[in-house]
Amino acid sequence: MAIRRIFDFAHQAHAEFPKQDMFVTKYEGEWKKTSSLEFINLANKVSGGLLKLGTKPGDKIALITSATRTEWAVMDLAILQIGAVSVPVYPTISSDDFQYIFNDAEVNFCFVSDKEILDKVKKIKKEVPTLQGVFSFDDIPGEPNWKEVLDLGDDDSTEIEDIAKTINPEDLATIIYTSGTTGKPKGVMISHTNIVSNVLASNKRIPRRKGLEDFDARILSFLPICHIFERMLFYLYQNNGFSLHFAESIDKMGENIKEVKPHYMSVVPRLIEKVYDKIYDKGTSAGGLKSKIFLWALGVNKAKQNIGRPSGLKEIIADKLVFKKWREGLGGEVVTLICGSAALAPRLNKMFQNAGIMVLEGYGLTETSPVISVNSAEKLRVGSVGHPLDNLEVKIQADGEITVKGPSVFKGYYKNEEQTKSVFTADGFFMTGDIGHIDEDGYLHITDRKKEMFKTSGGKYIAPQVIENQAKASKFIEQIMVVGEGEKMPCAIVQPDFNHAKAWAERKGLNLGADPKKLSESKELKARIEKEIDYLNTKLGNWEQIKLIELAPEVWGVENGLLTPTLKMKRKIIKEHYKDLYEKMYGKKDN
């Protein structure tokens, strides 16, 4: 069958790849499989239940889950195949943001995973006039459960099939509210065609392992499915008949990887950084000969000229003694890691590639559903985000901004025609807000976010993301934000890697303890990190060099509002949060 609407993926998957483990979720310590047939039947029953509740095409239904689970997949299919519009929402945002999104989208029903999210929604339910009901996946005494909607439906799918036939590929399928590094989130309207075209064009870039049939491939999914990156892949995996295992949480990733032994995983750069940091700490703390072998192997890895299988005696020995263990740590069967959401430092990318762990870095935005370009096994260039998809036209504007036109570009911002018009060129290209270039071999390279670039008082442009990615090569630096717009020089607010700083202080005989605030006040630690910055400055132009730093006294995270749910810095909020440190660096307050 031809795939034209998003829900067609699920029905084709059952027709072509009928299987017992289409989705697998862990409940109370046990992995529970859902077959492709059971998945279709459950979704049909829920669709029937929603219809009996009065759901009509175009009605909005919110989905909020702490961790992706099979119920989310069932609800997604049930909503889309009757022409309703899904509104996936990040679980970590505030009740105020829930209220804003629910009212903006005019949400009719909401399905949540657990009591914590339910309590946040209940706080604002009275402030959302359109909200008729809230149901939970977990059994919560005295609260409506999603099975009540399931039980309203029946096995007769005739009515659902009739409705599905009327759904046009260009119809609105979902409204995704961007996490937003500034201001209120925007509702990005995405059609069936937008996502379907992106899945089919991206599918060609996914490598296959020789001897591994698609229907035998296992996925471990742990990124938020409310984010377009993971969601598009969710459909891509269905398109190939892969089995999706939903991880319990990021904290249990290590345990889940050992259990599932995945062939494919999607990751964000921050996760790769954390994995490497853990590997490095373990390797260097082993002591004696083990640490020497580890560091020697890293040197061999770094010196390797061509990405690929080890060649030559040194590389073969290093692979057997060290890098084989890296692959085993990821389950031993990984075909590739699919990396997106932010820029991955080339040094880390190269290191994992040379360790036999393929990382396919790509690029896109919510507004492009999301992939604009992505590397492939056949055409892979570290430091790039690959070639643009075949069905997209990418144009670099005179100021370096990347613009794109094609079937996966969104329909517009919900209820905001003016803002929609503002992000398109006169000839219909979507303006990504990113600066980049396409090299002579057709690979796209991202330089920085246009909005994040700034000019010093001396008129010099600074691209902070490039500098920040280089700085995070330091074991002492967990996060760093380069500042200095309109100022005479660039400076930086640094969030140290407090675990590494603690271990370093203990080795130095410094009694600094483990409290981030006390560590950040240490003159010794600041001086040590300044040495790291001095080294970084040797690789930068005079106008880019960081002149002063201040240490942040806490970990930047989603919970304290300093990072987005996809772990990007909220620059304006961070700057305001550390206003005193900013003013101290620029002499605007007493030291």
UniProtKB/TrEMBL annotation:
The family database entries (InterPro entries) matched by this protein are listed as:
AMP-binding, AMP-binding_CS, AMP-dep_synth/lig_dom, ANL_N_sf
Q: What is its EC number?
A: 6.2.1.3
Entry-linked CDD domains: VL_LC_FACS_like (cd05907)
Query: What keywords are annotated for this sequence in UniProt?
Result: ATP-binding, Ligase, Nucleotide-binding
Q: What residues does the AMP-dependent synthetase/ligase domain cover? A: 15-414
Taxonomy, superkingdom:
Bacteria
Record-level Gene Ontology MF annotations = ATP binding; long-chain fatty acid-CoA ligase activity
Sorted alphabetically, the Gene Ontology cellular component annotations on this record are:
membrane
Q: Write down a Pfam family by its short name.
A: AMP-binding
Transmembrane intervals: none
Q: What is this protein called?
A: Long-chain acyl-CoA synthetase
Annotated source species: Frigoriflavimonas asaccharolytica
Q: What is the lineage of its organism?
A: Bacteria, Pseudomonadati, Bacteroidota, Flavobacteriia, Flavobacteriales
